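G., the chain you wanted modeled:
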Amino acid sequence: MKFKKILKALAATLMFAVTEMVFSSTVQAKYVGHNATPTELRGNWYAYKGHNKWTHIKITKHAFIYDGKVSCSLNKNGVRKLHVMRYKQNGRPYYDMNKSNYHYQEIGSFWLSRSKVQGRRVMKSYYNMGYFTVYTRNKIKHDYSYEVKGAGYMQQIGK
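Predicted structure as tokens:
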């Protein structure tokens, strides 16, 4: 009789220990990049180039299309493969759409800005040397793009 009580107590202790180990462990996923674009950036975006011409960007879940040509997607290989990386600057996120080995292979950094044109938020992009392109959801005959001179242009990414 005493042996059964000891065996039950030992089994209960063992079950408690196993349950405690299973439920007390914390699981943290490591961020390794994503194969889908953020929903806030998806859709059609336009930037006015002048003379009734626009730059057109179409962002779908698995592709980035620039002026009708697929710049990167999941079906491509190498630097043209869609690989969305999320970064933070000034407490706000911005996204790079592909991995690149050299600067000329980059598509650029994109983010949804707090700035508004005609009551709607705009998407901004940064590619090179302080020049920021502003994209709107509608075709508007005005170029909202701008350039920041000096060393402070890096602080403008994400704003």
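DSSP finds one helix and ten strands in the chain.

Shout if anything looks off.
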